[in-house]
């Protein structure tokens, strides 16, 4: 499903009438050469015109960056012998690519095109071009242990470090989705009632990998403490030396390959129990700026850094989120002082999230913090506040903080700060304080025979939640209404789903109403965001999110935009979640086989009525089968047909994705046929795992990583 090596390079794919080959360009200008030893001149590239283009927009910081709807030309800078990465980028984006064209030709392209440029030719190829017409990404393979050339990195907007691993395609998709604004993890996290993050306090990320799935349960992000990393190449250097950028980049690459959660990039100074010297703010800037180029989701920026540096980071942050961090270890700093408000205001100038942490020695100081927190919250607009007290006396504040609470885990070698608690300890404390009432959760229907119900029971124990979980049959008419009226009812997973027109569920989400099915009944948060305020029940559909997450695992969302899709199913009900998921990706025409749609999702669907209909569709980008098990082999001829019929189309843009949603023993082997025919094939297990992640988030408000779901269900990732 995920390639273990880069695919072979295919011929360039741009229209020959508009592309100008590099050979022609060199013939016209004898000064252009292929000499790998030619000197890179960053001044030439960086001094190009800087006026915005239609493909770029300002993010309020003054720095143009790609619009998610029109991302222009992507220029991939690659090393000699690494042309395959250009092909993979194009496949992930679902766009054509070339390494033989003039950049001037593509500067005003109406749609994204991927252009590969050999690193040694970058200076010449950009000569005279409008620099802002392109998104420039330096790619570098770390297989030989080398580091990217510093000047080359500085010339580019972003940098992607990679190795030949089964995670490469997934890692590249995540990187591109973030830097191009295709996915915005923070938009989802900021709406949660409570968020946590786990800090990897290992000197080498390799040590965290065996338990990373378990460590991440209950976390919404993973922090990499750069100052705690120990660079093996620094043997002989003074104790406490800062790890090299080369080592940090490789460690970050490794961490991102093994978790789908957002990463927080943190550099702590010597005054705050870190290694970075306070007399060299420029060193902080180099590392934090590089983290932005590496596509890290969250950048921790210490407040004491000069304002010029903090402003520069904001102006170049792209789609990364800035966490402005203040720490006080003196024990004399007070939340009631005017200084506290001043620090928040100063942090808010250049921070999307304000993080304030202080050492305390009395329990009363937690109450002072909560009063300060309430004042900030009542003020209304502004960045989110994450505020906790350090030390044993400050542990109460860690339970009461709701925005990115730092947590630890027994499997970590050390805690990142005094007084840190685990996710389970925080949940237990909240329950004791009455902030996390005990609820009764249910799996209604046939869940007992599925791994999902057993997994949910494991998660409640791992998270230290007080809730109970039971699997029950749906029972006679009226049974569910009676169950939902119980005072301790906290929500349920329903399998098979029930109709969204059911009268006894007071609220139905827009997605569930459009799909026509409810598979999860959850408690909506109270208006004030507390766990004890008045709530109501809402019917949700999580299956479509599981389908969407699966489809965007190795392709950015825009790869599907405007592309043809085919869905095979025994009924519209079986296909509705897949239709909604594809519509959320803005696909083009959806062709149907085996059913005729008549509900709210029917618009834009076209049924296949004959063999001639199949021939008219030249290259579907995605095929989804939700056929009954006894008819599952009917999709196999389509998979084989479009493998042959699409050979004339560009490999990076032709049909690529097959999703099998059939439940039960299949006839034939559609997944095997799809894989052998060159499709990226996914089975129901992937969708079920992502659906479980979303179901748990709705039922208990906490995150359980996809990788942990797969592991706990007894299904390895590869």
UniProtKB/TrEMBL annotation:
Species per Swiss-Prot/TrEMBL record: Penicillium capsulatum
Compositionally biased spans, kind Polar residues: 28-50
Source organism superkingdom: Eukaryota
Bilayer-spanning residue ranges: none
NCBIfam families: aroD
InterPro entries according to UniProt: Aldolase_TIM, DHquinase_I, MurA_subfamily
Protein name: Pentafunctional AROM polypeptide
Region (Disordered): 28-69
SUPFAM superfamilies reported in the protein's UniProt record: Aldolase (SSF51569)
GO molecular function, one term: 3-dehydroquinate dehydratase activity
CDD domains hit by this protein: DHQase_I
Xref: Pfam families: DHquinase_I
